[in-house]
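Study this fold:
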Amino acid sequence: MSTDDVGAENQNSDAPKEDAKADAPAEDKTVEIGKSGDAAAPKSAPKQTDTPLAKGAAQPGAQNGGKERGTMVPIVAAFVAGVLLVAAVTAVIVFYRQASNRGDQLDAHAAATTAACEYGKLISTYDPQTIDDYLKKVDAASAGEWKDQFAKLGQDLKGVVVDAKASSSTYDMQCGFQSGDTESAKVLVVIGQTTTNVNIAAANKPPSKVELVVVAGLQKVGDKWLVDKFDLPILKQMGN
């Protein structure tokens, strides 16, 4: 074989090697690009998806919690205001009832005291000419055991007044509420009484003045206060 033939063979044998070398980097680049692309895609994708989702998941919760708290504040305030309003209204009602009850009791006390004074004047004012009318009025203003007691003593009292030509009037009347409620009461009655009779007149003496102290018991019957206890000394003497 000649030298030219060997050179030609060498040239022919080197050509594929160069092609192979030239092709190798291309394949390597392709592989490297593919590797770098494959590695970048999985690494960057989770970062882009996980981070915004995590932030997004936290933000709605915080915003919703803030909205719920913001919504609850006026509800709680309204509830507290409602409780306070109910308490205030209840206090007003209780106060009104107490004041009303107190007012009713005071009115009852005043009415019972007035009735006791009127009764004291009624029972201490009589004369022979009006004794029958006197007995009727006292009976109508009386109640209970006292009414029965006075009815029994009334005729005896009438006989004394007529026979002695006795008369009586009042020059002073003082009454003070002692105890009781809207249905019953006790009233202290102080009666300044002026009396005269045939014997006093025959002796040319002035009418005598006495003061009688009586505790009157009263009870409410309908819309009237009636006396169910009234201990006059003269009636006690007559009863004995």
